[in-house]
Design a protein that fits this description.
The chain is an alpha+beta fold. The chain is 23% helix and 18% strand. The strands form 3 sheets. It has a 3-stranded mixed β-sheet. The termini are far apart.
Length: 243
């Protein structure tokens, strides 16, 4: 009985093995419809490709107009002033141009530079550079400070009188608001004695009248001036007059 049971079991096991074997051959496979495939195994596989795009942005700035610097022309007003020089020991005015209004520093420069113009060669000048240090006006009186050493170097016989006459006439006739002048040396507040047109000395205020006797006779000095070339203007009178 034991042998029979063992044989039956063996036969049964072989039958099960035969029924569970993997089929082979083309007829052994069967297509299963998509709806019956579990767990979405039938879904189509999608391949995603990522593309990176680099964009270059070019910014164009508007043209900047060229900067134009404005040219400013400053017109300096001028006026004519009489500056006195010497003709054979007499005081004669020369008309020169200076910035307006006339100030003392301009008159000092004009006196120092000497006479100019057609008659310059005939005129003398006793005003040396540095002689006139400064001027101060107060209550109509102009205080004129001189360099004492330079003044002493001027000839005492007539030169100092001529120099003072040049200064007095040029300043008192050229500047507004002053009618008299006094003189000092090297910044001192003490008035010094100076010669007048009559060769007298005084430390009191002097005026134009004190040097009137030294002023040149205009008519007489013009006769001794270099001749001026005459200017001739030609007018064309040959134009035809319509009849």
């Amino acid at each position: 009985m034991i042998r029979t049971t063992s044989g039956v079991a063996a036969i049964t096991a072989l039958a099960l093995i035969a029924s569970c074997g993997v089929p082979t051959g083309p007829d052994s496979f069967e297509e299963i419809p998509d709806p019956k495939v579990p767990n979405r195994l039938a879904d189509t596989t999608t391949t995603t490709t990522t593309t990176t795009t680099t964009t270059t942005t070019t910014t164009t700035l508007p043209d900047t107009p060229a900067t134009t610097l404005a040219t400013t022309t400053t017109v300096v007003p001028t006026q004519v002033v009489e500056v006195f020089f010497l003709l054979r020991g007499e005081l004669r005015p020369i008309e020169l141009s200076a910035p307006s209004p006339i100030v003392d520093t301009e008159l000092i420069l004009l006196l120092e530079q000497g006479p100019v113009g057609p008659s310059a060669a005939l005129l003398d000048n006793q005003i040396e550079e540095g002689l006139i240090i400064d001027t101060v006006a107060q209550d109509g009186v102009l205080s004129i400070d001189l360099d004492e050493e330079i003044f002493d170097d001027i000839s005492r016989q007539d030169g100092q009188r001529e120099a003072i006459g040049q200064i007095v006439l040029t300043f008192l006739l050229g500047l507004r608001g002053v009618g008299q002048a006094v003189f000092t040396f090297n910044g001192s507040d003490q008035n010094v004695s100076v010669p007048t047109g009559n060769a007298l000395f005084t430390n009191r205020p002097v005026s134009v009248d004190d040097y009137e006797s030294m002023r040149a006779d205009t008519d007489r000095t013009e006769e001794n001036s270099p001749p001026t070339a005459a200017t001739t203007t030609s007018v064309d009178t040959s134009a035809t007059v319509p009849g």
